[in-house]
Amino acid sequence: MRRALATLALIAALSLVPASAAPAGTVSDARLDRALEKLVSLKGGPPGASVVLRRAGRQRFLTAGVADLETERPFRADKRMRIASVSKAFSGAVVLSLVDDGVLSLDDTLAQRLPSAPPAWGAVTLRQVASHTGGIPSFTKDPGYLESFSTNLHGQLAMPELVAFVADEPLQFAPGSGYEYSNTDNILMALVAEAATGRSYDELLEAEVFAPLGLSRTRLPSGFRLPGPKIHGYDVLPKQDLTECCSMDFVAASGGLYSTPRELTRFVRGYVAGELFGGEAREQQFEFREGGASEPPGPGRNSGGLALFRYQTSCGTVFGHTGNFPGYTQFTASTRSGRRALTFSVNRQLAPDAIGKRAVEVFEVLRRDYRLAVCALLGRGSGSS
After folding, report:
1. Which of 30, 83, 183, 359 has its CA 20 to 30 A from that of 193?
2. Residue 383: inside a domain, yes or no?
């Protein structure tokens, strides 16, 4: 029944209406359109930006700037792009689907489900891993990882090798007593899913997420290639094409997926609205910890759930995930019902801790634009932030 409902929802969502063909937009839409133009015109701003807005069964696609500086081709809703840490929501979808099916329990510990995990981490539960409350150190902060990444950008690594970078480190705090966003958490989730099913993470993504939601242009690649047609990712100071700078093996389940604006919007709708799993698993996913922010932070007040974040803004509340990676910054979110959803994509990495004052300033503009996109999505006007 769940698969049938997902198929029906997919059929209903197949038409993506370009901005030029859509019905007359609201004031918020017009302001958002202008904001995109201003964003890409900023010194240090991204070469291009796009927003998918899905409301009342129809979608609009707003764009500014270019997806490829060499050809000056624009963003399109079906072009592939790196989705960075939004990949973490996909690992959440896999694990929570297995919980819904009775294969896993959120109270399972790493000692029970992943005997290869460091003994010091054994008491951490799957619930704590999924909510970044287990105290697991992040491999992306490890000096050995950073050296390996910087000296071998196109290298090949298996997921257990990513965990190995921090396997000798203690927990950062007692399980359940704190919050710390960790890229290792989502690698562990993928490994637990593999161990519980005897299937590869790629196979699980296909069976539990891609096939049910009809995602044909969303994948977790090995290596550094990004299939076309694609949205190129850049650094702009100095100008550099980073689309294929790095092997996705270095982030894997924590940040390595690619998708398209259209399909990422389809995913977040299904994920948040409960098309992939329901019942107790979904209810527990929506138990949020105040102050648990995604990285980079999304609009408004951020709170962390299970591989999901709540964004409370002056215009209303949405649920989703953010992410960034060299060349890309992403924000995708949906209302709880899945009736309204958005994907906001830019082709430059931006964050509050980015190198360079200008990049930080541009991120602050982008984050304000995220709030404006939420206002446009919810039809709540265009008040100041």
Report:
1. 83
2. no
